[in-house]
Amino acid sequence: MTETASTLVRTITDQSVGTTEGGLRISQADSTTDFAVDVVPAPEAADQIVEREGARVFLEEQAATALADRILDAQLDENNAVRFSLALPA
Q: 40 to each of 26, 69, 78, how far by Cα in Å?
């Protein structure tokens, strides 16, 4: 997770959940390469937890496997909407 992503994840979860236990949960449907991102108050039991500078991202088991070699990045667009991206390390 990049510094920008950790800042935005922390901001989103602080505003939405209001607890340090919350985070973004990334999950993957069984038959697709699409991922869903949800703000949740806590991880599920089998989730892999990634933390950086107070930001918490919970990876559902299938998503964790698919994204093991990826780095989460984020940016704000011209309308202040957050856009997440997943990239290979440089």
A: 10, 24, 26
Question: CA-to-CA distance for 88 and 41, rounded, in angstroms?
Answer: 28
Q: How far apart are alpha carbons 54 and 45 in whole angstroms?
A: 20
Measured at the CA of 81, the angle between CA 55 and CA 67, to 5 degrees, comes to 50
Q: How crowded is residue 77: how many other Cβ atoms within 10 Å of its Cβ?
A: 8
From CA 57, how far away is CA 37, in angstroms rounded?
10
14-33 confidence digits (pLDDT tens): 999 878 889 999 999 776 77
Which of 66, 80, 88, 64 has the alpha carbon at shortest distance from 2?
88
What whole-number distance in Å separates Cα of residue 87 and Cα of residue 31? 21
